[in-house]
Write a structure and sequence with these properties.
By secondary structure, the chain is α/β, with parallel strands linked by helices. It folds into two domains: 130 residues, Rossmann fold (3-Layer(aba) Sandwich), CATH 3.40.50.720; 191 residues, 3-Layer(aba) Sandwich (Rossmann fold), CATH 3.40.50. Helices cover 36% and strands 16% of the residues. It contains twelve helices and 13 strands. The strands form two sheets. It has a seven-stranded parallel β-sheet with strand order 8-7-6-9-10-11-12, with helices on both faces. Strands 2-1-3-4-5-13 form a six-stranded mixed β-sheet. Strand 3, helix 2 and strand 4 form a beta-alpha-beta unit. Helix 1 packs across helix 12 and helix 2 runs parallel beside helix 3. The longest helix is centred in the C-terminal third of the chain and has 20 residues. The relative contact order is 0.14. The structure holds 1,4-dihydronicotinamide adenine dinucleotide. 1,4-dihydronicotinamide adenine dinucleotide binds next to helix 4 and helix 6.
Length: 331
Amino acid sequence: MKTAVFSAKAYDAESLDEAADGRHNFTYFDVHLTAATARLAEGFEAVCAFVNDTLDAEVLGQLKAGGTTLVALRATGFNNVDVAAVRATGMTVTRVPAYSPYAVAEHALTLMLSVNRHIPRAYQRVRDGNFSLAGLLGFDVHNKTVAVVGTGRIGAVMVRLLKGFGCEVLAYDVRHNPACEADGATYVDLPEIFGRADVISLHCPLMPETWHLINAESIASMKQGVVIINTSRGALVDTQAAIDGLKSGRIGALGLDVYEEEASLFFEDLSDTVIGDDTFSRLLTFPNVLITGHQAFFTREALAEIAATTISTLDAWDAGRPLPPEVVIVG
Ligand code: NAI
């Protein structure tokens, strides 16, 4: 089947080609899928898209007019998909419901530990022959109260990892996960999370109910010096409110793998250009902020699993077989 792959990097091509084993005809476009680029997909029955590709009514309409019937997201989150617009077109949109929850949870933990123990600053200092410890003071994670917001696949792994560190784990989710309770997490409501947690790690999807979950009001109700970790989706955090919280000291440290305006920044080498996003640039000035560019998913195991699920979706579509319900977002 002819498939146009958007936001495609060399590692995407490598993993998809290997999993496809010659069964599919991929054309790789390194640009994002937008209203301006959608015509590249003309004549392609399937489109494979990623987290910062746009799948709104305009783009979906263009894809449909060009003959596309299937959009296979190579991601779990689908906040970039206008679900009502997909329904209106009659197209099918799928995702990779799970690949490696370990990849993302381990990265969240890495951000938490690194920002707490100032690893990036320590690395730079030692390379510069500066062995002073001033400003590198951290805290024991053992016995701290850590909150996991969203206890699905990734959050559940995070709960287990944190229990291994000897933390008291608080959890919040609209649905309780019995596995997390069995692992020792205690479900409480959000105000209690905000009032008691030393660290808050976000693992819920971005949706209208969770947009700017971390905002000026919720930050004001948090413990002084709280550490916030976001590996889920950028817009769970109101960035300006987080900057104000960092300036006042209410937020003691911030670890981000995602940013609400990341689409124009992440996954590209912009080291030769001037970053025009002043909010992002302000975040980079804080010594207690650690940002990675949406790399939490980026492990060999996760890439292989994303490719395998995507190929099995394309195989089923090509053969006219029903798609597994867990991969179908709309269709
Ligand atoms: P999942 O679907 O297994 O779990 C999500 C959990 O969030 C569910 O338990 C659900 O009940 C809960 N939830 C729904 N609405 C909620 C609300 N209003 N408040 C609190 N919890 C709520 O998803 P999974 O695989 O654990 O992924 C979670 C998120 O991680 C994805 O939506 C995606 O945005 C993000 N992600 C980030 C990656 C990265 O590379 N940074 C890679 C993969 C996923």
